[in-house]
Design brief:
The structure is a homodimer. By secondary structure, chain A is an alpha/beta fold. Chain A is built from eight helices and eight strands. In chain A, the strands form two sheets. Chain A has a six-stranded parallel beta sheet with strand order 5-4-3-6-7-8, with helices on both faces. Chain A has a two-stranded antiparallel ribbon with strand order 1-2.
Chain lengths: 212, 212
């Protein structure tokens, strides 16, 4: 696959993947842009444009082959590979992420926590050890992790990002409420939960200016 | 405030709010679109356009008044009100949300959990009781909650959404990996964590097609 895929399309790819997987489970073999659009609350022309931009598939009048398209999207999203993840911060959020359903099925494997709180340390745990942050430089190389998940308070995030970058990590999934300043060859995806909640609040306020 | 505010602007409002709050804490009184743009990694003209679309403030050549603009955004996001939240699902994710930093400061008050797991029930807890889901109809009206947070498995989400809607809840913050089918007067904001992770993976794959 080559060519330019817009951010908007990239943001929609996971939803395509999810719906196509559901359709496959329902035994659907082919789906028209009309039906897929209805399901995804997109117009048929948006569907055709999106799918075209990621490299085609589907013949005029036949609709899209569900399994093949799902596999294609799975591949361009890199879900056909295993991604090992270290989780920085073993608090409630870090643990919720480590146990989030289906991550393992898609190849995202949490391999260790790092935390500063002595009460959370558990370096001998078989499945998901919790190491002290001061051992990052010692432990990270052997963990062979491609992704660092940042689930620490905002104040600690930037320093940790720089340390894992120096150790070769090139992707950060950031849950800290801060914009990280990062080099260009570091992929950062932010989950700013409070921003999502504020947008909800904005829409409530827009719909019921007098309160609800 | 009236007129049309685009989705893209709405999505950026929380970041404006966060940066303006930081600037206020740093003691900055006025900021130019140039400086704010640099900080937020947006062009000055984007900044001017965004702020103009939410109703102005700022005089040519003087920059924007930090505190007033922050307050204005706070108000249109409805953060000057208290929003009581019930959390459906008292698992790891539900607990991470209930304890997420700063929510209370912005007026989002978790008031109760509902869960099906007998081991999680704790109806007599003073601060955050955990009630059985079967008591939703009985308990929800007196809890006076404007927002329901859905932190249950995907299969259970739609039914719960319908039940809280029937009880008068008009806003759902959905963490379940499913698109809810909802009436128009229900505000739904989704946090599909796996989708965020897949986008990270897409960008890794785009940057290092041979793996990293």
């Amino acid at each position: 696959m080559s060519g330019y895929v817009s951010d908007a399309v990239i943001r929609r790819l996971p939803a395509y993947y999810r719906h196509l997987r559901e359709l496959e489970e329902e035994g659907v073999k082919q789906i028209s842009s009309q039906d897929l659009g209805e399901r995804m609350q997109l117009t048929p022309s948006q569907i055709r444009q999106d799918i075209n931009s990621i490299g085609g598939l589907g013949r005029q009048g036949f609709g899209y082959p569900v399994s093949a398209l799902k596999e294609h999207i799975r591949e361009i999203m890199g879900l056909n590979r295993e991604h090992r993840m270290v989780i920085l911060g073993a608090g409630r959020m870090g643990n919720a992420i480590a146990n989030y359903p289906h991550f393992r099925r898609e190849g995202f494997i949490p391999v260790a926590f790092f935390d500063n709180d002595p009460e959370r340390l558990n370096p001998d745990a078989e499945e998901l050890p919790v190491y002290p942050v001061e051992e990052l430089e010692k432990r990270l190389p052997e963990l062979n992790a491609a992704i660092a998940v940042i689930a620490v308070p905002a104040e600690a995030a930037q320093e940790l990002a720089e340390r894992v970058y120096a150790l070769g990590v090139r992707a950060i999934w950031n849950f800290a409420q801060v914009d990280l300043h990062c080099p260009r060859d570091l992929v950062v995806q932010n989950v700013h939960l409070s921003e999502s909640l504020y947008i909800l609040s904005y829409r409530m306020n827009e719909m019921w200016p007098e309160g609800k």
